[in-house]
TrEMBL record:
Residues 207-275 are annotated as: Disordered. It comes from the Bacteria. This is Recombinase RecT. Residues 207-217, 242-253 have a biased composition (Low complexity).
Length: 358
């Protein structure tokens, strides 16, 4: 069973509440056990804490005594700027993406930022296993909510380009919630389609739902037969009444005409309602299509931004290589390219921010 799971150091950071700088070792272990965050790691809270303490960039350290555990985080301008950047864009970011933004906002060089910005120590940032991006600890996870909604409504697939609209308008996912289908085996992205996969006991529930639906269909099929039999009896009664005399036949015909008139009116009203629903459906489809185009453009812009940032990371390595060879001309060319890329990336980021606010 694959689900989005915090890294070990992120689990420890989640234990600390806002404003807490240190905690008794026993309290940390107690909170770990109560939170259920250690499930699936095959170790208790004490063993998990001991493993994190041995990490090179551990977010915690032993305090004045072995019984006290302290955060290793030290406040700095760069951490605060990184936090605001991720919070304002409301998107998880890689360390390189954050560093590129801080490079634009401050006078610090790339190497300085990468050396000083140790987000492993900042309790405001967390990571999920298998995902190199940094999330905010205050954000929640929407995977369970999305899965439950899809199963309850019989939804088995969603167009990838409409996922954002689907989460916001139909599922009602909160603004501070993240949806991570790539880390969850209940979802599978295949090309342009996001598939919802039944897991655990959902198959039995689905079968029960199918049986209930079959029972409803059987009842619906039986009802027309009963209606038909009733109509046959009515016709026979009318026929017998018609044989009693001409005057009674005329009276019956007049009654039929009067009964037929409301039926015709009902049919006319049904057609009007159907046309209105068809119009509203077309209007809704046009709105969804417009939203889908916007989301597709946003996705392409994010891909372009990622490629620019990847190229900047590659150039950083190339600069080191040229520096070792004393090739200053090549370094100058790379620096010009890097500056141009940063300007383009800034423009793309501004466009993305504008579209996300609409």
């Amino acid at each position: 069973m694959k689900r989005p799971t915090y890294t070990l150091s992120s689990i420890i950071k989640k234990v600390f509440r806002s404003g807490e700088r240190s905690l008794p070792r026993e309290e940390i272990c107690s909170r770990l056990e109560a939170s259920g965050l250690t499930t699936g790691f095959g170790m208790d809270g004490s063993a998990l804490l001991a493993k994190v303490l041995r990490m090179e960039q551990a977010p915690v350290k032993v305090g004045r005594s072995e019984a006290i555990i302290e955060l290793t985080y030290q406040p700095h301008q760069l951490f605060d700027l990184a936090y605001r950047f991720v919070r304002d864009t409301h998107m998880p970011k890689t360390l390189e993406q954050i560093a590129a933004e801080l490079r634009r906002q401050t006078q610090f060089g790339w190497n300085q930022i990468m050396r000083m910005l140790q987000l492993e120590r900042d309790p405001r940032f967390v990571q999920y296993q298998g995902d190199g991006r940094w999330f905010l600890a205050e954000w929640t996870l929407a995977n369970d909510q999305v899965y439950a909604f899809c199963r309850a409504n019989g939804i088995t697939q969603v167009a990838a380009r409409t996922v954002h609209h689907f989460l916001e308008q139909e599922v009602g996912v909160a603004d501070d919630a993240m949806f991570l289908p790539a880390l969850d085996d209940r979802f599978r992205l295949d090309g342009e389609i996001l598939y919802i996969i039944a897991r655990d006991g959902d198959e039995e529930q689905s079968q029960a739902g199918l049986e209930a639906a079959a029972a409803v269909e059987t009842a619906d099929e039986t009802k027309p037969e009963a209606d038909s039999a009733e109509a046959g009896h009515t016709a026979a009664d009318v026929k017998d009444a018609g044989q009693s005399g001409t005057s009674q036949q005329q009276s019956t015909d007049g009654q039929r005409e009067r009964e037929a008139q409301p039926a015709q009116n009902h049919t006319h009203r049904h057609q009007e309602v159907h046309e209105q629903l068809h119009f509203e459906e077309e209007l809704s489809m046009n709105t969804v299509q417009t939203q889908s185009v916007l989301e597709e453009v946003q996705q392409l812009l994010r891909q372009a931004l990622g490629r620019l940032e990847s190229r900047n990371a590659e150039m950083a390595q190339e600069v080191v290589a040229h520096f070792q060879q004393s090739n200053m001309q090549a370094i100058e060319v790379l620096m010009k390219e890097k500056h141009k890329n940063e300007q383009i990336a800034l423009g793309i980021q501004q466009v993305l921010t504008t579209t996300e606010q609409q």
